[in-house]
From TrEMBL:
Residues in RING-type domain copies: 169-212
Pfam family, one: zf-CHY
GO terms of molecular function: ubiquitin protein ligase activity; zinc ion binding
Domain CHY-type span(s) in chain numbering: 27-102
Entry keyword set: Metal-binding, Zinc, Zinc-finger
Organism domain of life: Eukaryota
Protein's UniProt name: Zinc finger RING-type
InterPro entries linked to this entry: Znf_CHY (IPR008913), Znf_CTCHY (IPR017921), Znf_RING (IPR001841)
Cellular-component GO terms for this entry: nucleus
CDD domains in alphabetical order: RING-H2_Pirh2-like (cd16464)
Length: 238
């Protein structure tokens, strides 16, 4: 065996040894992940048996396939295997790596198979929604009629529409229920993304695209219009 082969063998052995070293649970925190989440593991998608940083990365790739029949979303609860980003060990879903002991996600939900090191989002699992939400459990309530989590400020102050968020945003058509974008509940009870709502307002569109009811309290605007009509009438009369 040549010296080059010996060197490679030594290098491979060192890598194998390094992969089996027990790490501090915080090792590598905030150093791994993707554009969606900071986490120290990747997931194996059971639907296509490929490894992705997260379900959103999977969905972006799967829904970009040229054949529409092959496009699909990953059901998060179906994930069974993850790969530690520190030691590359594939294993069953768990918060701590079975090989190196690192914490693969400071926030971990065994139901959603969800990992995230950035706990400033105040993640929590809503049993009624069946998925994890962000924003703090104490700041939200689950409306049984609407079938969604809303901020406490909307408790008893919103129009209920059954399964209101289990629809697509009427502006961008993205499914609202598990969207990572913040949603806005309008006076009529219909829901859209906040960014889409602001876009409509900026374009002077004030009616709900679903029911055509006003999205804002327009009473002040109507008063100004009435006043303008009265002023014009008196000017003409004088």
């Amino acid at each position: 065996m040549g010296s080059g082969a010996s060197a490679n063998l030594h290098s491979d052995s060192m890598e194998a040894a390094d992969s089996s070293i027990l790490r501090d649970k915080d090792f590598g925190k905030f150093q791994f992940g993707c554009e969606h989440y900071q986490r120290r593991c990747k997931i194996r998608a059971p639907c296509c048996n490929l490894i992705f940083p997260c379900r959103h990365c999977h969905n972006d790739a799967a829904n970009s396939l040229s054949d529409p029949k092959e496009r699909h979303d990953l059901v998060r609860q179906n994930v069974k295997q993850v790969v530690c980003s520190i030691c590359q060990t594939e294993q069953e879903v768990a918060q701590f790596c079975s090989n190196c002991g690192v914490n693969m996600g400071e926030y971990f939900c065994d139901i959603c198979k969800f990992f995230d090191d950035d706990t400033s989002k105040e993640q929590f699992h809503c049993d009624d929604c069946g998925i994890c939400r962000v924003g703090g459990r104490d700041k939200f309530f689950h409306c049984q009629n609407c079938g969604a989590c809303y901020t406490m400020g909307l408790r008893n102050k919103h129009s209920c529409i059954e399964n209101s968020t289990k629809n697509s945003c009427p502006v961008c058509y993205e499914y609202l229920f598990d969207s990572v974008k913040a949603a806005h509940v309008m006076k009529c009870g219909h829901t859209m993304h906040i960014v889409c709502f602001k876009k409509m307002i900026n374009e002077n569109q004030y009616r709900c695209p679903i029911c055509s009811k006003s999205m804002l309290d327009m009473s002040h605007s109507w008063q100004l219009l009435d006043l303008e009509v009265i002023i014009k009438f008196w000017i003409c009369y004088i």
